[in-house]
Amino acid sequence: MTRVLVVNHDRDLADEEVEALRRRGYEVKLCLGPIGAMCPVLSHMGCELAEWADVMVYDAWATGEPDGAAALIAGLRDLHPDVPIVLSASGMEPDWVELAGPHRVTPLVGAPTGDRLASAIEAALAPAQ
Fold first, then answer.
1. Any idea where the domains of the chain sit in the sequence?
2. What's the pTM value of the predicted model, to 2 decimals?
3. Phi and psi, residue 43, nearest 5°
4. What class, spelled out in words, does domain 3-125 have in CATH?
5. Which residues pair with 85 in a beta bridge?
6. How far apart are CA 125 and CA 108, in angstroms?
7. pLDDT tens-digit readout, 17-67
8. Which of 31, 37, 96, 127 lies in the 20 to 30 Å Cα band around 60?
């Protein structure tokens, strides 16, 4: 069973994502991100939840502002390079998203429906072409 860490500061949306993924057979844990709790990544320390996960679904705006989100994603990629990240952005894709290289993410722009989340997760987990 694929383990998914959902990180989203919007509790209602996070709950919807978690339930949609569980219905599709994923094992899921939830984190409200740095707005909801202390974040070890912002202190340049590893994250136990990220270490548990096979893949992360991360809200692009989890820190509440774009520069913080870019730094947080870069920190996650540096500290946990083997855990793919699906970066969800319900509006527009941030201009700092990297599709290749060490800070690579799989973007998911638009409504994070269960089917779209599952497709993005499978794309993120697929071997790099």
1. 3-125
2. 0.89
3. -100, 15
4. alpha beta
5. 56
6. 14
7. 999 999 999 999 999 888 756 788 888 888 999 999 999 998 877 666 666
8. 127
